[in-house]
């Protein structure tokens, strides 16, 4: 594929993705004629379709079109047709390919299943151009071609774009709706539990915790240290006193330890003297 055409197709597919919610793998519906055409000229239809839509495809064929391939009695052609996933159309007996494909593509004026349609029927393509958001592909004799975006599709895209500009990004377009609706719900979910939990923490936990933090460790330290201090360890009491000194209860501790130290110092020289 020439670079220019590849770029044009990429641009077109981007419109289908952004404005019509197409997603890879792109469901690509073929008619029997394009399969036969490609088979006859030994053109790799699957590869061609994938490179035309510039992405992974999910190749599909309706029961009616498959029926058409069976009628050829060409085993290789039938085998090629079987590579496409069968799209159930439930037409019994099989109907005309154009009507069949249109019936599965045009659902109440919309391309509901987001099909890319590859057909050799000019008549069918003309019908599908009226439906917004139907990428159309055909073989122009040895070259696979994607049609320009139809006027119906352009109008629809413009409506979406203008709606985005006028009413804000959050409220327009199917994509925007989905994107905006979910985060809002999530935010509400997050907001509701948070205030409750925060209130509980503020009202109940902090005072008790702080009280515990302030009192319990210090008490424990004092309780443990006091006997330890007086009994054996020399270097620890001054350090504990230095850290605990700003608080009032610790002052007593410092005075106690200081008093003990003073007493020791006094008693020692007194003994010497
Ligand atoms: Zn059918």
Automatic annotation (TrEMBL):
<keyword id="KW-0698">rRNA processing</keyword>
<dbReference type="InterPro" id="IPR029060">
    <property type="entry name" value="PIN-like_dom_sf"/>
</dbReference>
<dbReference type="GO" id="GO:0006364">
    <property type="term" value="P:rRNA processing"/>
</dbReference>
<feature type="region of interest" description="Disordered">
    <location>
        <begin position="156"/>
        <end position="273"/>
    </location>
</feature>
<dbReference type="GO" id="GO:0032040">
    <property type="term" value="C:small-subunit processome"/>
</dbReference>
<feature type="compositionally biased region" description="Low complexity">
    <location>
        <begin position="239"/>
        <end position="259"/>
    </location>
</feature>
<comment type="similarity">
    <text>Belongs to the UTP23/FCF1 family. UTP23 subfamily.</text>
</comment>
<feature type="domain" description="UTP23 sensor motif region">
    <location>
        <begin position="185"/>
        <end position="201"/>
    </location>
</feature>
<comment type="function">
    <text>Involved in rRNA-processing and ribosome biogenesis.</text>
</comment>
<dbReference type="Pfam" id="PF24779">
    <property type="entry name" value="UTP23_sensor"/>
</dbReference>
<keyword id="KW-0690">Ribosome biogenesis</keyword>
<dbReference type="InterPro" id="IPR006984">
    <property type="entry name" value="Fcf1/UTP23"/>
</dbReference>
<dbReference type="InterPro" id="IPR057776">
    <property type="entry name" value="UTP23_sensor"/>
</dbReference>
<keyword id="KW-0539">Nucleus</keyword>
<dbReference type="Pfam" id="PF04900">
    <property type="entry name" value="Fcf1"/>
</dbReference>
<protein>
    <recommendedName>
        <fullName>U three protein 23</fullName>
    </recommendedName>
</protein>
């Amino acid at each position: 594929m020439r670079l220019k055409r590849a770029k044009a197709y990429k641009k077109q597919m981007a419109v289908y993705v952004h404005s019509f919610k197409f997603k890879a793998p792109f469901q690509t519906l073929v008619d029997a004629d394009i399969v036969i055409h490609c088979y006859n000229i030994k053109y790799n239809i699957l590869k061609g379709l994938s490179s035309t839509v510039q992405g992974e495809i999910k190749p599909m064929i309706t029961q009616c079109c498959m029926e058409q391939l069976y009628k050829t009695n060409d085993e290789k052609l039938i085998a090629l047709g079987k590579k496409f996933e069968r799209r159930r159309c439930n037409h019994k007996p099989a109907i005309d390919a154009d009507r069949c494909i249109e019936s599965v593509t045009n659902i109440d004026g919309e391309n509901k299943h987001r099909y890319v349609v590859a057909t050799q029927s000019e008549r069918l393509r003309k019908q599908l151009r009226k439906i917004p958001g139907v990428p159309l592909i055909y073989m122009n004799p040895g070259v696979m071609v994607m049609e320009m975006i139809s006027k119906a599709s352009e109008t629809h895209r413009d409506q979406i774009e203008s709606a985005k500009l006028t009413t804000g990004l959050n409220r327009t377009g199917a994509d925007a709706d989905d994107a905006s609706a979910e985060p809002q719900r999530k935010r509400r979910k997050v907001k509701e539990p948070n205030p409750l939990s925060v209130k509980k923490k503020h009202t109940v936990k902090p005072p008790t915790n702080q009280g515990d933090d302030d009192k319990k460790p210090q008490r424990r330290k004092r309780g443990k240290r006091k006997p330890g201090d007086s009994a054996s360890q020399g270097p620890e009491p001054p350090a504990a006193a230095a850290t605990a000194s700003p608080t009032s209860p610790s002052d007593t501790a410092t005075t106690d330890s200081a008093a003990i130290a003073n007493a020791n110092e006094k008693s020692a020289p007194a003994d010497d003297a």
